[in-house]
Amino acid sequence: MEIRFENEIKAAAPGLEVLCMEADIENGDTADELWNEIERCAAAIKESTPMEKVRHRPAIDATRAAYKALGKDPNRYRPSAEALCRRAVKGLELYRTLTVIDLINLLSMASGHSIGGFDADKIDGDCLTLGVGRAGEPYEAIGRGQLNIEGLPVYRDSVGGVGTPTSDNDRTKLSPDSRRLLMTVNMYGPSEMSPEDVEAMARRLLTDYAGAKNISATYVKALS
Prior knowledge:
By secondary structure, the protein is of the alpha+beta class. It is about 35% helix and about 25% strand. It contains seven helices and ten strands. The protein has helices at about 5-10, 30-50, 50-55, 60-70, 80-90, 100-110, 195-210; strands at about 1-5, 15-25, 115-120, 125-130, 140, 145, 155, 160-165, 180-185, 215-220. Helix 6 (about 100-110) packs antiparallel against helix 7 (about 195-210). The longest helix has 17 residues, at about 30-50. It is globular and about 40 Å long. The model has no long low-confidence stretch (mean pLDDT about 95).
């Protein structure tokens, strides 16, 4: 899958780097071993990060800065990594869904990067373009209905929007029948983890829990 950047994104987030990973997967119920990893990560975040400091984690702060540069209020439309970490700090149980969705959430909490997870077979075409949401642009967010994506970074295929750092689109969501994963790790700035460590953790989780095969990884920078 090719990733392209529109000029507005390049201007608002010149340091953006996307780790794009693809793999053949099995996406069944989340194993207890994976859920235990998620709970340990959430507990560590709760212990080490006061609520007022969540948004200042480096990767979350960089994503929020991109929102602000595009005119979007990150307090109203929180990046998914921030929303997950806030739930952890509040001591709220995370949603247990499907293997690949849950391991992506774990990777997002650990790194602070908001991550898109898509059924690659539902993507129309072989290119995603990262641009900016337009006023009135239709976007059916997973579990949220119509989302106002004006001013949000948004990946589009040849049909329309498929993912934002706030929520992915229902049209391309992962399901129990999904067999091919496309994952975009949106690195708007530095994290407590290096990009190589993020990739290594993703490979381990996908291999250990989703039976992943034919894993590929490419890095694409907004300004190269």
